[in-house]
Structure formats: structure tokens, C-alpha cells
Amino acid sequence: MSDQQKPSSAQVQWLTISIDYQGQRLDNFLLAMLKGVPKTRIYSMMRKGEIRINRKRVKPDYRVVGGEELRLPPVRLPERDAPPPVSAGLGRKIEDAILYEDDALMVINKPSGLAVHGGSGISLGLIESLRQLRPQLKMLELVHRLDRDTSGCILVAKKRSALRALHEALRDGGVDKVYHALVQGRWPSRHQHVNAPLKKNELRSGERVVRVDADGKPSLTEFKVLRRFASYTLIEAKPITGRTHQIRVHSQFAGHPIIGDDKYGVDEVNKAAKQYGLNRLFLHAAKLTFRHPVSGEVVSVKAEYDAELHAVIDMLSAEIISAE
Questions:
Q1: CA distances from 184 to 187, 191, 222, 250, 266 (A)
Q2: Which parts of the sequence belong to the RNA-binding S4 domain (predicted)?
Q3: Which of 68, 169, 170, 322 is the most buried (most CB within 10 A)?
Q4: What is the pLDDT of residue 119?
Q5: 290 close to 144: Cβ distance less than 8 angstroms
Q6: Average pLDDT estimate for 124-132
Q7: Which residues contact residue 296 at a Cβ distance below 8 angstroms, ignoring those fewer than 6 apart?
Q8: Residues 283/258, Cβ–Cβ less than 8 Å
Q9: In the structure, what pLDDT confidence band is assigned to residue 4 with cuts at 50, 70 and 90?
Q10: By mean pLDDT, which of 187-191, 195-199, 246-250 is the weakest?
Q11: Fold exhibited by the domain 13-72
Q12: 198 - beta bridge partners?
């Protein structure tokens, strides 16, 4: 679909898929285009043959080629409220957090507390803010995600071709992610990886949690001790697979939950950490390394801790010095 074409709910439409979307799965393409339409409705339309490519039935995993004719049946699109305008303060904060930028992509040191996108009661996230700050750009899309409370490096694509290439690199292990986390207790130096399958679960309250489960997806995280404190350990974590909450759950499974984690941590430990001024999850995407999708050069970007994390480390370090 070209940038000018928008689906209409009134009648059957035939749209031409832009070459920019070449290689994208049809279900992912439709979910992005028909935002707000339930997944079950979209998959039902594909299953019944109401959605067609070049007048032929297609499966959800079909990869679009570009230049193809897409048939869309009448579908009711929900009314979507425009996100609120980005405040001057948030705008400056995001602009100051840009670590790397060129014509194809940018890397941002996402602040903790800022969701990567709107939804679930959040009307304005990082990507919506960026689109307001850069209205001249035809496309801005998240390459991957970070939890709302996690800070650090996040990739944003400015071209569809860059997005496709970076997604392929993510699938093939071509994007190296390094996180720093402050965990409870003394992480043993010999414990260099956690290999435990993870499965998403939904509680009665509707909250989603991830657990180690034999029926889950294979998940591997490499760990390394960076620094020890009296009651905590600063560790480096490298997720080899990319599961939801992977580092948080693997740290908990290893017996050393991340400090400030209100979902997988220990309440008493988190409460005690507040004396150091820590009121957030101590998980930070410290470094991203990847091959540039256009130039082919290796790009390595580091993100510094915010003031709160720096202050926590300084206080913990001062305790060690005073104890000596």
C-alpha cells in the first residue's frame, strides 16, 4: 500500500502494495495497516479468502513482493483519537537522547518510564513522539522494543528497506545487544549463562507474565559479573534469543532478581533499595552493535546511565570505600 492509500470501511477495495513492504509477512503487514481491528477478525478474513493477493487466496505467512494487488473486504476501523502534542520538555529530552542518526536509522537512549509506543492506556510513546518531532519523515518505525521501565539503546528505522534489513539481522543474530543490570545478592562468576525455556502466561487479572516452563520457547542469556557490592552485583547480560522479559525472568530463575523489578523481583529488596534513590528498574540497554543496512559498516553505539542509575552506583561504591 502506498503512503497515500488508506483502507476504507465502506466497500471492497483493491490496493497496490508498495515495493517498500517487500518481504514482510502478510499478517504483520495487515496488522500494522488495520490498527485497531482485532487480530481474530484479520485472520478470519484471510482464512475465508476475503483478503486476496492478485485475486488469489493467501496464507498469513505469505511474504508480500510489492506491486501486488491487495483485495480488502469492507472492515470497520475504530475511531482513533490523535495523540496529545509532545510537550517542549519531552521533545528536548528525546532530541538530547539521540545517540546516532543518519538517513536510514537512529539510535536513541530511551528514558526509563517512557513506553516505546502508545496503547493500554498510554496515548503517547516514543515512536508517536518522534513522528511529531520529525513530521517531514515519511516513515518512522521501531526496529525492536524495550520495556517501559528499561532505559537505553533502541533502534528506529527511517526507511522501509532499513527496517527489513535490520529485522533480518535480528532474526539471524546480527544485532548484538548488551544490557547492564543490578541484581540481588552475589552472582557467582561461574554462572555465565542461563538456558531455560520461557512461556507467556496470563493471570486472572489480565496481567501478562513470563515463566520458565518446559513447554516454552528456547531461551538463552549470557551473563558476566561487572562489579560487586555488599548486597548487590552489577552484571552484563547478553540475550542470545529475544523473548519477552527474558533477562528479567532469567535473572529471577538464577536466584538473583533485578533490583526495582516490581513484576519479577522481591518487594522487600526493592523497598530497601529506595534508600539509594532507586525508584525504577535497574535494567539498561548499554550497547548496540550491528552492520549498517546501507553502508555495510559496523555501527557500535553506547548509552550512558541516567542520573538516577549513576547516583545509585556512586552510593554503593562509597559504602564499599567507607567499609574498608
A1: 8, 14, 17, 13, 9
A2: 24-83
A3: 68
A4: 66
A5: no
A6: 91
A7: none
A8: yes
A9: very low
A10: 187-191
A11: 3.10.290
A12: 212, 217
Angle between helices 126-133 and 88-96 (to 10 degrees): 100
Q: Smallest Cα–Cα separation from 221: which of 193, 258, 200?
A: 193
What is the distance between the alpha carbons of residues 60 and 86, in angstroms, rounded to a whole number?
A: 36
Give Cα 3 distance to the centre of its chain. 24
Express as a percent the part of the chain with pLDDT over 90.
69
Q: What is the mean pLDDT of the chain?
A: 89
Q: Which residue, among 255, 259, 280, has the nearest Cα to 269 in the 3D structure? A: 259
Catalytic residues: 147
Domain ranges of the chain: 13-72, 88-322
268/281 Cα distance (integer angstroms): 14
> Among 121-125, 138-142, 151-155, where is mean pLDDT lowest?
121-125
Same CATH topology for 13-72 and 88-322: the answer is no
Given a contact cutoff of 8 angstroms between Cβ atoms, the answer to whether 201 and 209 are in contact is: yes
Above 80 in pLDDT, residue 212? yes
Residues 6 or more apart from 170 whose CB is under 8 A from it?
143, 144, 242
